[in-house]
Amino acid sequence: MKLVAPICAPEDVPVLAGAGADEFYCGLVPPQWQMRFGRSTLNRRMSGNLHTFGELALTVANAHALGKSVAVACNAQSYPRDRWNDLLGTLEGIAEAGADALIIGDFGLLATLAERRLPLRIHLSSVASCHNVETAALAVDLGISRLILPRHVTLAEMRKMCAELPALEVESFVLNDGCVFEEGSCHTLHLPGPLGGPICLDRFQYEYRRGDGRALSGTEAERLRANDEAWAKWLWHTFSCGFTVTPEGLPYGPCGLCAIPRLAAAGICAVKVAGRESPLERRLKSVEMVRAVLDRGGGEPQVAAFAEGLRKRPDLCRSGFMCYYREILRPPGKRALARVPKSA
Amino acid sequence: MIRPATSVPLRSAEAAVSFTELESLMRFVSRPSEAAGTDWLKFLGLEAPEMVSMPVGRLSRVHFGNEFCQRLLPSVEAVSEALGTVTSGGFAFGLALPVLTDDGIERADALLALLPEGTEVALNDWGLVRRLSRRFPHLKSTAGRLLCRMLKEPRAPSAAYLELGGHGFMTPGFEKLVARLGVGRVEMDVPPFASSNDMRVSRGKLSVHVPFGFATTGRICRIGNLRRPMARKFESGHVCARECLTYGTVVAATGGRSSAQTGIFQRGNTLFYRHTAEMAAALCGAITAGSVDRLVVSGDWHEARSADLRA
Which of A53, A224, A280, B154 is spaced 20 to 30 Å from A306 by Cα? Predict the structure, then answer.
């Protein structure tokens, strides 16, 4: 199972490779694009992007020297018509810089690339919201080599997709950066704090109304209040437990470390550390955590115990609210317990 | 009031009404005769000025099914009953489907198998569009509004925040995709600060949803976890008791603004915004310009569910 890590600069490559990353992904917003269209329209991230094709070429050279690959995210949800020619020119520039893969989130762009046959692999971004075999098969028709699953896919659903399309590489999230809504279907902005910030963190006041026009009973009102309280608690966990880290610098928040044996058994070929916009230290600690679990190997109970011990906060782990794949907290049923393959 | 038939402008959009619940659909289609004609918006509780000033032509269609949540996928019996009721009432029937998992697709197959040739199906997942073209080629694919991706930030204080780009339904890539998959119609929302030019597509016919747009949606539903035990709340693929059919939510205090100011509300797993008069005016312009030929009016899964639709 490969460990895929985010990079923001060419010099990140040796640092994260040294910590155990097998593959890299990054964003690129060249100055010509930024001048015409701004920073945030070529991929999903405002910051953490490379700035020039030269920087990308250096990043790729650094990675190739270590036997690693680089995928470049061009995963905006969609691209308006006025950007199309510049977009295709940028993708050709990325190919010329030697990148190994493009990460694409828009099926219209995918349909175009299917005809252009650029000399690099195509990965389908989690932004493309692929939740079933049929969508994955369409993407395969259009030439993808790898599917990056969205966050909220269950282990059973992954298993089905991997089994039905065995030639397709499938990658899933393993650490950091939760989303409350579906990333590919969220059409909002992360606004500045005074305007509410990300919509999922905005301090909305909810007022419930019954559809039949009746007033809420006392019991209903209490149940709704308790559910809202639980929601706030889940949000806190989803956003890195209040955007905090352990004293050792290990990130809290969305995590699939315990699930690695089941991800491997499902047929997942690569796990992704999210967080292109985060500081190098956070990305480094994240890669080290995942690498430690991959290298340790072993069965589910051993992996779970080891992973839980990394942050030394079993209370947070056992709440389940940090889990990308909370099914892992329940017995796998009659299926044999999965094991982590000793890392390749 | 809605313009009577005699004063319908040269260009108007036909109207469809969409329902998530069978009961609402049945009440609407079998509403009393005095509520027929042009008063149907009032029957739905949607008689706001920006709605009634729309250049709406004939109410010709009734759509069934929820676009946002697999948990609301109707049963075979419900679709069968809706189909019979709608067609008997003299309307064309359409089915709407959300993003589905493989389990959901199996259930959807049984629904699609019920539909007569030429029935329109609004699909919100490109994989489902592929499946329809291969397995149900006698049905007509519509690319639903979840596939029309664009910034629709209802809290944005000015148009400058949304100038990052329009939707992707005008690109050569989109044209290739819909040609490949046999899509004849697409649906979209009216984005905040829209102009009439924002509501155009380069291929196919265009429907626009009114009077609410969706801002964001996802698999994890706040109200749908109301009865879930704490340890199982808010996990991927959770089940629910369809609480969204009982409770709606209005949302206040966005950046200090009230729900009346933002127009934001939540139904189930989805945050919506109510159209402003300016958005409605832009849509009117797009209709009269001939870019939009159908309005899809939200019948029941919204903030203003009519008393006439209640049990």
Answer: A280
CA distance from start to end of chain B: 27
A131 vs B230: CB contact, 8 Å cut-off?
Answer: no
Pairing, β A101-104 against β B56-64: unpaired
Q: How far apart are CA B115 and CA B122, in angstroms?
A: 13
Q: What is the CA radius of gyration of chain B?
A: 19
Q: Tell me which DSSP letter residue A336 carries.
A: P
Q: Residue with structure tokens 């000793």? A: A342
Helical (H) or strand (E) element with A159: helix A155-164
Taking alpha carbons only, the member of A148, A273, A319 closest to residue B235 is: A319
Strand-pair category, B247-252 with B264-267: antiparallel
Instruction: State the Rg of chain A over Cα.
Output: 21
Interface check A198 vs B, CB under 8 A: no
What dotted CATH number matches A2-178+251-340?
3.20.20.70
Question: Mean pLDDT: which of A70-74, A298-302, B37-41 is highest?
Answer: A70-74
SS (H, E, C) chain B: CCCCHHHCCCCCEEEEEEECCHHHHHHHHCCCHHHCHHHHHHHCCCCCHHHHCCCEEEEEEEEECCCCCHHHCCCHHHHHHHHHHHHHCCCEEEEEECCCCHHHHHHHHHHHCCCCCCCEEEECCHHHHHHHHHHCCCCEEEECHHHCCCCCCCCCCCHHHHCCCCCCCCCHHHHHHHHHHCEEEEEECCCCCCCHHHCCCCCCEEEEEECEEEEEECCCCCHHHCCCCHHHCCCCCCCCCCHHHCEEEEEECECCECHHHHCEEEECCEEEEECCHHHHHHHHHHHHCCCCCEEEEECCCCCCCCHHHCC
pLDDT digits (tens, 9 = 90+) for A177-231: 999 999 999 999 888 888 888 999 888 888 898 888 889 999 999 999 999 999 9
Work out the percent of chain A whose per-residue pLDDT is above 90: 81
Closest residue in B to A116 (Cα–Cα):
B173
- CB contact, 8 Å: A85 with chain B? no
The CA distance from A67 to A173, in Å, is 23
Q: Which helix (H) or strand (E) holds A260?
A: helix A260-266
The distance of Cα A32 from the centroid of its chain, to the nearest Å, equals 28
Instruction: Give CA–CA dist B4/B210, Å, rounded.
Output: 20
The structure's pTM equals 0.94
Cβ atoms of B262 and B249 within 8 Å: the answer is: no
Chain B residue numbers with beta carbons less than 8 Å from the beta carbon of A41 are 164-165
Residue found under tokens 């190739």: A64
Tokens 């209370």 belong to A315
When the pLDDT of each residue in chain B is averaged and rounded to a whole number, the result is: 90
Give the β-pairing of B247-252 and A146-148: unpaired
Domains of chain B: 5-219+274-309 (3.20.20)
In this structure, what token pair is assigned to residue B177? 């995709």
B8 to chain A, minimum CA–CA distance in Å?
Answer: 33
Is residue A303 within 8 Å of A35, Cβ to Cβ? no
For chain B, say whether A130 makes contact (Cβ under 8 Å). Answer: yes
Residue A129 pLDDT class (50, 70, 90 cuts): very high
Domains of chain A, by residue range, sit at 2-178+251-340, 193-238
What phi and psi values does residue A25 have, to the nearest 5 degrees? -135, 155
B308 to chain A, any CB pair closer than 8 A? The answer is: no
- Give pLDDT tens digits for B215-267: 999 999 999 999 999 999 999 999 999 999 999 888 876 666 777 777 899 99
